[in-house]
User: Fold this.
Amino acid sequence: MAYQNNIMYKITKLPNQLELISAPIAGTKTATVLFMAATGSRFEKMADNGLSHFLEHLFFKGTRKRPNTLAISSELDKAGGEYNAFTGKEYTGFYVKVEAGQLKLALDVLADMLLNSRFAAKEIEREKGVVIEELNMYLDNPLYYIEDLFEQCLYGDTPAGRDTVGSKKTIAGFSRGQVLNYYASQYSAKQAVICLAGKVGEAAVKAAAGYFKKFGEKKYRDKTPTNDRQAGPKINLHFKKTDQAHLSLGVRATAYGHDDELAVKILSLILGGSMSSRLFIGLRERSGLAYYVRTHNEAYTDSGYLTTQAGVPVSKLNEAVKIILAEYGKLAAAPVGETELKKAKQCLIGRLAIELETSDNLASWYARQAILLKEQASGEKVLAPEKYFVRVKRVSAADLIRVAKKIFVADKLNLAVIGPYQDEEKYVKLLKL
Assistant:
């Protein structure tokens, strides 16, 4: 399968060292500008856990030119734009997607937010309540919270294991001084990237360069390295009286950009990445144990994992764990057949091809790669989709069983559960392969 040849990209390095990626799409009527900074909750200390995410909110609270949230949102709303921001463990992003004729407005608003936010003391105090309610929402939603609990199980009380949103204690304690200091160190031109995607050309690149030329180089604070070693199976039980047990059962895998990363991704698709995947059929269709089942992999710059999440009857947790572990074991014991492997690879290629038809997803594709490669300082270049697809096609059944034998071992097993359970030792004994 050949990807659209009219989607190319170009990287321009501005005089202030800020990288600008342009990725035009022929025939589209939209344009997206996405700014990403190489910072997130892994760059925080214990006392400022959640500050990356809190600062993300504050960029929308007013600048000298646009003094409040309404002034910012009204300008983007009148253009019919879509806009938002997100904070992860290793990056933070801000995007505006508009009809292409409104791109200059999108650039003006976004640059104003990122360069001229006032971070007013009263807005900081007000936003604490908003973010605490966001935290409450996540805590009350097991589909979200189970992933945080799984990462706690993996990484413990370290920046990699703490919640991105922070805790109620840290959020309530944030000061304006902390906010200003974090912004001054982490929003550095050299550790950021802008991507323009969609109906964009040289004029758009020149305009973006003009808006962001004042973005400066700062004293950057790098993240704490992750300890990715594990000597035995681990469990994290979160006691809660529920009618359904929510579980995440997985293993340590590979970091971003590792030679085996694609093999891990394909293994996750085979296990629980579609409605015809092994665990969707095994847990839901044959056993009737779950409504939602999914397996996915996460690849950070220096660590990674593969995990299966599901919601099952409280009384059937043991049975569900055994079914998942059995499927893990099968992948390490016998090669994946040619038909199943071909289907998984085409599923990965097909989904990505569909996603990248839109300017916002294409911007995210390039910017995320650029940021993670910056953090790794690997010297690798971002991949166009077509080159990525070539790599996907090269993954063989031999690669899959080799990687499966490496990751699906008892000492790398981790289980997080939300439900009415307290006896950790009982469930640790289940974690055998």
